Fold each of these.
Amino acid sequence: MATEIAQLIAGGVARIQRVADDPRHEAEILLGAALGRPRSYLIANPEQRILDCEATDRYEAHLTRRAQGEPIAYILGEKEFWSLPLTVDPAVLIPRPETELVVERALVHLPEHGGGRVLDLAAGSGAIALAIASERRQACVIGTDVSPAAVDLARVNAARLGIGNADFRAGSWFEPVRGQVFDLIASNPPYIAEDDPRVERAVRRFEPHDALFSGPTGLEALRAIVADAPRHLLPGGWLVLEHGDGQAGSVRSLLAAAGFESIVTHLDLAGRERCTEGRRPGSASAR
């Protein structure tokens, strides 16, 4: 039996309201995906009757998964980052808007029309690496991740987006680029402490544990990166790190102890300390 768009959305809202911050918005996204229509069409045509039973079945399946807490990005298999539509699945962390700050800071340190070598550690879906590569087409961008499944997905995203100056390699931290040096290293590593009570239940349940949690303090991955980064940076090269909103002081101390200069922490759009950068001593002319 045909059902109006407005009725389908109302039914969806009722099913997901306990897990969604904005259930109407999410129901519209899920219905639009099932119908192959944009949200604007649904909003403009609330009385349109849907005769496509396969589409309504897809919508019901989407709602069932969302009602169980599964993130919409995994249900739809896609998440936008830096205006790039990235394929995502449970093998990778869902890219967050605050991580775009890492891209912004990296681009400040890379010449707009020059080359340069960039390394993205814990690349996941390839979000940071592909965003930088899309903005600096003459740069060579390498992403590494300990998860082969994540590397495979990042390669899929690069091919899908037609970004040919980004390469992804499997291995722990700097192992896949042993002996190589870069103009800039960026990373959104795991930085959450294992027992952090602020982590949402759905995040713990659905997103990859190793991409979120670093150890008892949450600083373990950040400490490892800072310790090895100097030997992989050219003189004057930059290290740009995302971290937790309470970790900025510790990260600045780690960078200072490792000999970095020009250490600065930047705030995300919510006003939280989210990204800290430092420069390896030396002049670019020494390259």
Amino acid sequence: MDDDVLVVTGATATGKTAVGIALAQRIGGEVISMDSRQVYRGMDIGTAKPTLAEREGIPHHGFDRVDPDERYSAGRFAREARHWIETIRAHARVPIFVGGTGFFLRALTHPLFEEPPLDPVRREALHAWLAERETVTLRRWLRELDPASRWSTGGGGRQRLLRAIEVVLLSGRPLSWWHAQAACGAEPLRPRVFVLEWPADVLRRRIDARVQDMIRAGLPDEVCGLLARGYAEDAPGMSATGYAELLGWARGHTSLEEAIRLTQAATRRYARRQRTWLRHQLPQEATRLAAEQPVTTLVDEIVKRWNRTGR
């Protein structure tokens, strides 16, 4: 039954973690992180992973899946998430997805194709060569290699461009062909989705304050530690908001104050993209909740609406 799968989502800094944990405590649930940055080991502060104290007594899944120099796709998330759902259900508990990565949610509700296998040696060499090219050049190449790709005309980040080019060059088929031809590997989930929303001006202030909290919690040291362990600046994990901006400070190119300002601005842009996605890509039956309410009130409302499904 999909109605025993709950999703608590929203833009960054909307309070999803606190609501998700309180909800799990209330209904006997386990939390599955739906955050594309919390999968990285050693990246705790800047990705806002809940602390061990916050997680106490509530099993969590989806953290620390890969190192910062590895990729973690939405397809892999969907496959692993289905395994976690089965395990949680086997324990007679409730799976609760918590996070704001829209592509991860879409991979559950609109299953992806199995990605084509790519030779790891050739891929590493190609990736290193492509990494030296400017983004505008990559987009021009992708328009030639895969005109149907949504990444060729704008949108998406540099990592998506690189991936799309790697697939067409190493598999002989563009990603658009794989999307159209390859069969989905699983039935779509139809979870109960709850969206936490703040007024835009309030969310902006929350984001700016949250970045300052991360700095005080040790984010600069975390970034320096990743560099000291040998992770390159173009590693997939290092492109995360906050890490990318603090790299300039760590290399002596900007002041810490400027890095903080850049991080706040980048986080606000990311939140706007999330809000846009959540407005247009979620099913109509998704429930939108005013996040300025107390956590207990939000949990009460989620449980009440969930119980109406027959739970």
Amino acid sequence: MKKPWVIAVMAVMLSGITAAQNQLENPGFEDWEDVLIGDPDTIREPAEWSSLKTSDNEQLSDFAPVVCERSADSHSGKYSIKLTNVASLIVANGAATNGRVHPDLNTDLAYMFTDTLDSRWNTPFTSRPDSMTGWFKYTPQGEDSLQVKIILHWGYSKQPDENYATSWVGMAELFSSVNNGEVWNRFSVPFTYLNEGLPEYALVVLNSGDREDPKAGSTALFDDFEMIYNSPQTSIDKPVVPSGFIFAVDSRYLVIKGMRHEEYTNAVVRDLTGKLVWNGSVSSDRIDISSAGLKGGIYLVTLSGKGDDVYSQKIVLP
């Protein structure tokens, strides 16, 4: 949950530095606070983040299971955030956000949002990072997958709801079904920018399960988020193309450029809803995805493999 005095200090700082190289608030999940959810019950949430228990629906919050916890299993420092899918009336997805949760028993109607009218539920952010990195551990059940999504935007925004995409400045996203529950894996997701302006807010969505079909018991730990900047930040800057990236030759082949393909053993392709559309091995810098029969459009490709790194990037199939 947000600390109002932190927001006030940030507002003063941002008023004088309109193009600062921002970082997320409490990105290492070291600061936690007790939240009163009903006399005498309290839970613990990371400062500047929130979960189902502090949603905008108090009746559902009271009955919602605890899906967000502090963990002493950390990549660095003392703590990380632990999200778990919990079976109740439905399987509640382990979820956290730096905005606010709007829950619904009909999961198609649930979302997370930036509340521009209440500083507890928004994160001011006025720069254009090239990518975001972080660390995770994941123990999925079945074919579950975690999600990290970052939307840089103007004004009110919510996710998932692409009707609000007109307010987006840029976004980055990671899906992973890698079962690495014993090892911290590093991820790196580049931002895709939709225009040349500066954002006002960053909305981060974390899930330990697939949004449409989360599996009970899937557990994800996250730690040490960091925004990476490779270029000066001005309102007319265009993002720098990363030294390593993936591009589509056509709808049949992807090529890994500027990265050692030997570091990766598996590739996953998802559509923009998060649906898995292709999964296969990586044996060279050229990946044959022809068996998927994909139509032209935007897809998310995730590489994982021998080392700690998980690389995720959007690609456009012609």
